[in-house]
From TrEMBL, chain B:
InterPro entries, A to Z: HRR_RAD51_Paralog (IPR051988), P-loop_NTPase (IPR027417), Rad51_C (IPR013632), Rad51D_C (IPR047323), RAD51D_N (IPR048943), RecA_ATP-bd (IPR020588)
Domain of life: Eukaryota
Record keywords: ATP-binding, DNA damage, DNA recombination, DNA repair, DNA-binding, Nucleotide-binding, Nucleus
All residue ranges annotated as the RecA family profile domain in the record: 78-251
Taxon lineage: Eukaryota, Metazoa, Chordata, Craniata, Vertebrata
GO biological process per UniProt: DNA strand invasion; double-strand break repair via homologous recombination; reciprocal meiotic recombination; telomere maintenance
Protein name as it appears in the record: DNA repair protein RAD51 homolog 4
Cellular component, GO, one term: Rad51B-Rad51C-Rad51D-XRCC2 complex
Localization per Swiss-Prot or TrEMBL: Nucleus
First-listed, main subcellular location of the protein, grouped into a coarse class: nucleus
Family listed: Belongs to the RecA family. RAD51 subfamily.
Native species: Kryptolebias marmoratus (Mangrove killifish)
Function: Involved in the homologous recombination repair (HRR) pathway of double-stranded DNA breaks arising during DNA replication or induced by DNA-damaging agents. Bind to single-stranded DNA (ssDNA) and has DNA-dependent ATPase activity. Part of the RAD51 paralog protein complex BCDX2 which acts in the BRCA1-BRCA2-dependent HR pathway. Upon DNA damage, BCDX2 acts downstream of BRCA2 recruitment and upstream of RAD51 recruitment. BCDX2 binds predominantly to the intersection of the four duplex arms of the Holliday junction and to junction of replication forks.
Length: 296, 333
């Protein structure tokens, strides 16, 4: 198969390594390397999409505002991308970056340059909506050409991988292999893209079983997606809601705003192949504010 | 699953289809996932022709990537915020129902879910002059209640009739009829409904759990796949036609005894904003109080667990409500 010179260079040229994308989430020096997949798993309302926005903004922001200036593809399977929320996070971080740069002097920054900076950040983002698992498979094939033409594309975000789980089960009927067929094909294709193009993938997976026996039950955290996908995953982030501190509820007057902000916990288990094969783990907590995720 | 048919794209004729079927390639996904070189050898077709067919089929059936900047511009121009008519609820919802999203109201029996839906429909059709499609699956909607609410907003009978005409009511009682109706709306029903008055800006489904809850449970997963289908078409409709979708849900008790919205964990990911309605505990002497409290349990814009109380009688506020009641007495006498 022939490919043009630019395609060859785009394929072989090293894409930006995203090991340092968020060191507070991963165990020491254990961030996702080239070709690794991170699965973000958790029930509803535990901050998974907010984490994705945080990683997204970290990638597209300019270096002056603390970003990595890489291109990102966001595959949206259940229409959960809230552009207004994303833009407010980007705005807050850009402003924070601007004020730290210029110190305390409030120079009248023209609205034009704010708009231009935001437009530049947003142009690094590509969004695709998929409405069924067959469309997801075909779109991933199509994305291969996008990957080969843009060498600054280093991150693929999928929200969420489990959106078509029940419709696939309904379509597949009684045979499990038929049920998992399309997701398996998509996972195999993703594996090939990871090997050939050396990108990094973050994907969310919604929980489908409620935890009846308390927050520490391991039954609900068992992966339920197909085997080929589970083989791809190298890091797993388990998100949960932290129980509200009873002392906080007592203090009425003080810091009402902080009291309302729920705290979320993330537990990361890595079985990274690049390290010595040992498993690492780390737990961190964060709050969701106007400027996105803030680690505690 | 898109099955290969002749004439789908230039170059896909009957002979090629026959040789592809012999090589076990029946759908577009099979064709795209297979290795073109091997397939060309097996079917004795030129590699170039097969590659061109693959490219055209991919272009026809994939979703195209959109740049974030374009998506944001489009969203800015098409998103609207529809006030529900009640200032306390609007405060919870960050100034109202957003188009392009699903908002869920959950609550026990008698907690006021349908009344809130009526109030929102009346406000949108009368004040905002936009059409509303109200899908009633419980049989709890009566036009006389809508008229009563409208009478407290205006005394002009022409305006009342116009506002009532902008509310289109669909009555259905099972999930297949609901899917039919929603697909029909996506396929051109919304445009048809907009011909009369203003464009359709809200679709209210009261209640979505009444048609789905009987199908859940047990070993069959068909109920879950129907639920995800309903969720998918509601979201697609909300996004593509920029309407605000408002659905109501029942409540169940969790393992620890708390009240939580029904339809399980898989539905909980579907709405963007969720509100829980409850009766307010008042003195036992006051029976049938109309006070309700609304708690925000999921939102991407506000911190969760904020609570607001409101009275179901005065929908648009205390001042207007008092005079409205007097007018109603006059009209009755």
């Amino acid at each position: 198969m022939s490919e043009s010179g630019t395609q060859l260079f785009a394929r072989l040229e090293a894409r930006r390594c995203l090991k340092d994308i968020e060191p507070r989430l991963f165990p020491d020096d254990g961030g996702p390397d080239h070709g690794e997949v991170v699965e973000v798993y958790g029930p509803e309302g535990t901050g998974k999409t907010e984490l994705l926005y945080h990683l997204l903004s970290r990638c597209v922001l300019p270096e002056a505002a603390g970003g990595l200036e890489v291109d990102v593809v966001f595959v949206d399977t259940d229409y959960s991308l809230d552009m207004l929320r994303l833009v407010s996070i980007l705005d807050t971080r850009l402003n924070k970056g601007r004020t730290t740069l210029k110190g305390l002097s409030t120079s009248p920054s023209s609205a034009g340059s704010d708009e231009a900076a935001l437009h530049l950040c947003l142009s690094r983002l590509l969004v695709v909506h998929c409405s069924s698992s067959s469309q997801l498979l075909l779109t991933l094939h199509f994305l291969e050409t996008t990957l080969s033409s843009r060498s600054s594309l280093a991150l693929l975000l999928i929200d969420s991988m489990s959106a078509f789980y029940w419709s696939d089960r309904g379509e597949g009927g009684a045979s499990i292999s038929k049920q998992e067929e399309k997701l398996s094909k998509s996972s195999e294709l993703l594996g090939r893209l990871l090997r050939d193009y050396r990108i990094t993938i973050f994907a969310t997976c919604h929980a489908i079983r409620r935890s009846n026996s308390g927050p520490s039950s391991s039954e609900t955290d068992r992966p339920f997606l197909c085997r080929p996908w589970q083989r791809l995953v190298t890091h797993r982030l388990l998100c949960s809601r932290q129980e509200a501190d009873p002392d906080q509820a007592g203090s009425d007057r003080g810091d009402g705003e902080q009291r309302r902000r729920r705290v979320f916990r993330v537990h990361c288990t890595s079985s990274s192949l690049s390290s010595t094969g040992t498993k690492g783990s780390r737990t961190s907590s964060f709050r969701v504010t106007d400027g996105g995720v803030e680690f505690i | 699953m898109v099955i290969l048919r002749e004439g789908m794209c230039p170059g896909l004729d009957e002979d090629l289809l026959r040789s592809l079927r012999a090589a076990d390639i029946r759908t577009v996904e099979d064709l795209v996932s297979s290795d073109s070189e091997e397939l060309a050898q097996k079917c004795s077709v030129s590699y170039k022709a097969l590659f061109a067919i693959r490219r055209v089929l991919l272009a026809q059936h994939t979703a195209f990537p959109v740049s974030g900047a374009d998506l944001y511009e489009e969203l800015l121009s098409s998103t609207a915020i529809l006030s529900t008519g009640n200032p306390s609820l609007d405060k919870l919802l960050d100034s109202g129902l957003f188009t392009g999203e699903i908002t869920e109201l959950s609550g026990g029996p008698g907690s006021g879910k349908s009344q809130v839906c009526f109030g929102a429909a009346v406000h949108i059709s009368h004040h905002l002059k936009q059409s509303v499609i109200y899908i009633d699956t419980t049989g709890g909607l009566t036009a006389s209640r809508l008229l009563q609410m409208l009478r407290s907003e205006t005394t002009n009978t022409d305006e009342q009739m116009e506002a009532l005409q902008r509310i289109r009511i669909v009555r259905l009682f099972d999930v297949y009829a609901l899917l039919d109706c929603l697909y029909g709306l996506c396929g051109g029903g919304l445009q048809q409904a907009s011909v009369g008055g203003g464009s359709v800006k809200a679709v209210i489904v009261d209640s979505v759990s009444a048609v789905i809850a009987p199908l859940l449970g047990g070993k069959q997963s068909e109920g879950m796949s129907l639920m995800t289908q309903v969720a998918g078409v509601l979201k697609t409709m909300a996004k593509d036609f920029s309407v605000a979708a408002l659905v109501t849900n029942h409540v169940t008790r969790s393992g620890s005894g708390d009240v939580q919205p029904g339809l399980g964990v898989s539905w909980s990911h579907v709405p963007r904003t969720r509100i829980l309605l409850e009766r307010v505990e008042t003195a036992p002497s006051v029976s049938r109080s109309s006070l309700r409290s609304a708690t925000l349990i999921k939102s991407s814009r506000q911190p969760c667990c904020i609570k607001e109380e409101f009275d179901l009688r005065w929908w648009s506020g205390a001042a207007g409500g008092a005079s409205g009641k007097r007018k109603l007495d006059q009209a009755g006498s």
